[in-house]
Design a protein that fits this description.
It is a single chain. About 0% of the residues lie in helices and about 35% in strands. With about 200 residues, it is an all-beta fold. The protein is globular, with a radius of gyration of 18 Å. It has 2 domains: about 160 residues, Hexapeptide repeat proteins (UDP N-Acetylglucosamine Acyltransferase, domain 1), CATH 2.160.10.10; about 35 residues, no CATH class.
């Protein structure tokens, strides 16, 4: 066993935990969930049945990741983030009978490699958050987020671009559509609402 699970955590026998991963106090990892190598699951976090997480993901304290969410490599989920899975949530059906697992179809949030989801934000499934995108704290995301996009607000709207370092990109003077990372110097090109690395 090359991973660490605190005694108060609940990890299903069928869950897969990657080498070097840590599951902290009161976290719950459900059946058939798969965590890659080097993942950190914070105190009180929840990982739903069958959720897939790539290597080096971090779920901070009390984050709730409901199935069938899929996280790429190096994804950061801030404290108290919620990834929902029901587009039309109800406890009961129209005849007032309690709904069960087979009474609705789960929809998921897909998060690309390197993306960050800020504290207390909510991602309303179904949607996809692109590679290296950043969702600001407290945002409510209701539609897809492009690669490298910075979104914030309720509902979340794009307000800029970020690079791999997480630093907001700056458009180069005299070069429309060319964005530079002030931290790394990496260049990106914007075309038709899409940003690509150069």
């Amino acid at each position: 066993m090359n991973y660490m699970i605190q005694p108060t955590a609940q990890v299903a026998e069928s869950a897969e935990i990657g080498d070097g991963s840590s599951v902290w106090d009161l976290a719950q990892i459900r059946e058939d969930a798969r965590l890659g190598k080097g993942c950190v699951i914070g105190r009180g976090a929840y990982v739903g049945t069958g959720v897939q997480m790539g290597d080096n993901c971090k779920l901070q304290n009390h984050a709730l990741v409901y199935e069938p969410a899929s996280l790429g490599e190096g994804v950061f989920i801030g404290p108290a983030v919620v990834l929902t899975n029901d587009h039309n949530p109800r406890s009961v059906d129209p005849e007032f009978k309690q709904k069960r697992g087979g009474d609705w179809e789960a929809v998921g949030v897909e998060i690309g490699d390197g993306a960050s989801i800020g504290a207390r934000s909510v991602c309303v499934a179904p949607l996809r958050i692109g590679r290296w995108a950043m969702v600001a704290a407290g945002a409510v995301v209701t539609k897809d987020v492009p690669d490298f996009a910075l979104v914030m607000g309720v509902p979340a709207r794009q307000v800029g671009w970020v690079g791999r370092s997480g630093t907001r990109l700056v458009e180069r003077a005299g070069e429309p559509g060319i964005w530079e990372c002030p931290t790394t110097g990496a260049l990106h090109q914007e075309k038709d609402g899409t940003l690509i690395e150069r």
